[in-house]
Specification:
The chain has helices spanning about 1-15, 20, 140-150, 180-195, 200-225; strands at about 40-50, 60-65, 70-75, 80-90, 90-95, 110-115, 120-125, 160-170, 225-235, 240-245, 255-260, 265. Helix 4 runs antiparallel to helix 5 (about 200-225). The chain has three domains: about 35-150, Immunoglobulins (Immunoglobulin-like, Sandwich); about 160-175 and about 225-269; about 175-225. The relative contact order is 0.11. It is built from five helices and twelve strands. The chain is about 25% helix and about 30% strand. The protein is rod-shaped and about 155 Å long.
Amino acid sequence: MKVRITLGSLLCALLPAAPMALAPLPVQAQHDVRNSLPAPVIRGFNVEEVPRIAPGVELHFDLYGTPGGNATVRVDGATRNVHLTETEPGQYTGTYTIGAHDRIRNASAARADLRLGTRVARETLRETLIRDGAPPVARRELASAQRATTAPRTARYCTNCATVEAVNVIDAGGEGTYLGTAGGAVVGGLLGSQVGSGSGRTAASLAGSVGGAMVGRNVERNMRGSQRYEVVVRYTENGATQTLQFDNDPGFRPGEAVRVNNGVLSRDQ
């Protein structure tokens, strides 16, 4: 009986404290780990100076500071940032290749950011991008590269452009009427028969026939030996061919680029 009374008294004493025991403990404010990181520090920032500013030139940057950070470089006139890689603890390196759309100048400023958590350290490059004594920025080269990159390409249509397919030599004496060997002999004999009389006339006729045959043979050889030239061209646009004739060697060779203007053949310059 005494034990029950003791347990009852103990239970009554603990009941008021039960809500306090079951109450949630006060929540501690979350601690942002990023805020606990040390503030980043940039100890050095430099660039490998170049002799000139032009598309294709590479700018090499080095940054020295707190290790484990995220380092970037921004150059005035550049179309993008340079992300530096931490090659060794606290040493960051990166390269920027100048493009045709960049507007970087000799005096363009470069700024570096070293981010560690939510904290950022900034440093401006104290040296210039151009090596001392280097010529001024090649603005004409930048402009020409810009035009070459952005200018639309126009197709070239040429209705009279062609290529020489072949050059043929034609013998112009194949047909026609001309004084040959037999004709020359007849004419020469007739002429010889008109000279003298008797045996003298016979001798003259014989000599005239021989001489006339020789003259006729020379005339025939000259007429048969005349040549003409044909130049066959193929048009670039439609693939059609055309043959042009010349009395003398025009001097064209197969494979040459030519133009045909009103039947006149000329080289395509």
